[in-house]
Amino acid sequence: MLVPDQPGLGDETNGRGAMTKLTEMHSGYRNDAVRRGFAVALALTVTLGAACSLDLSGIPAAASAGSTSGGGNGAGSTSVSAASAGGAGGAGGASATSSAMASSAMASSGTTSPCTPTGAEICNDGIDNDCNMATDCDDPACAVGFVCIPAIPSGWSAVAFSEKSRPSCPGGYPTAVDVVSAPTDAATCACACTEQAAASCATGMLGIASMGAGPCPAAPSIFLDANGSNCGGLSNLGTAKNGTVKIAPLPPTQAVCNGTPDGAAPAPVDGRSCDAAAVGVGCANGGACVTSPGDPFVACIAHDGAMSCPPAFPNGSAVGTSATDTRSCTQCTCGTSATCSNPKLTFYSDASCSMGAHDLPVTSSCDSVNDGNGHVYKSYEYTIDIAGGECQTTKDSTPTGSLVLVGARTVCCQ
After folding, report:
1. Tens of pLDDT along 4-39?
2. Would you call 135 exposed, middle or buried from its count of C-beta atoms within 10 A (0-12, 13-18, 19+)?
3. What is the sign of the dihedral through the CA atoms of 352, 357, 362 and 368?
4. Is the pTM of this model over 0.85?
5. How far apart are the C-alpha atoms of 191 and 327, rounded to whole Å?
6. Which residues face 395 on adjacent strands?
């Protein structure tokens, strides 16, 4: 039976030929695998180089040298060069993929330049100085000594404000502005009355009109000093047994009173406003990061002129570098409205107004009197009741003038 020629079956020549073909096929497969593996490695190298910002200018030359030493195959060398240059085929596709991956890595980083630390965090410059992804008040390094305040409206500035004293400005607020915190309320006025001379119903001369038993004459003929209701002497004045007398009471003498305005406007108070050197960020809702001023200062905002305070800073103070204050109280007057009642004139038989009293009516009318058998009198006393003799305000003191701030400024605090 005849057996056809087959590689490796007794025919050495045919066997060697078959082995040669197998070797060539194996070499082709190996070169193709090398080309594919190198392309993948190169793609990864490009991707990592782009992500790390490395210089890849030397990669193609190294790749070419490696391919020559690895296989000594011209086709393999050409394939590697094509892959490194982004040529067609599988290697070209890998190169395109690596470029896309590099671009994606750059985009995801959010910046083309990394943060460069410059030292410890400065809490009011708006910069992440220590590159910890937290700026100003948002950085833990600023937890002490700094404070967040609401967002500062346009035209306003951050200040440290001491309304009632002038201590040195705190750190972070280098510019001092001495101000007066001046209430614009009008003066509160009253009147203080003082008595210079007391009111009286017993000052002056009493006129006595008498003609014995006849009708009273029109004009008085006897005059006695009322003497402030003190005992007065008589020169043996006698009275008839029966007669008439007409005595008019004295009118009141009003007191002499002095009125003095009592009260004044609230006085301006010395204070101090210190302008902030810088304002930082890192606060909620766009708030401002400022140095915590410490007592007696308060972190506030300020604006030149008379302004309405923003809602986030409702507590306002009108201040100025000085004030022109003309507020005062007008002059007032005081007086009395004294009235007199129950007048009485009493004669005494002794010289000290203590014995033999005889009362005479004081009515401004012609009155009948009966003194028995008549007497001789040596003293007298005029008494009368008085009411309303105390000094009272007759014209009130009222506020006048105004306060005008010079270099007006509005300071608003939380």
Report:
1. 344 443 444 444 444 334 334 444 434 444 344 433
2. buried
3. negative
4. no
5. 16
6. 333
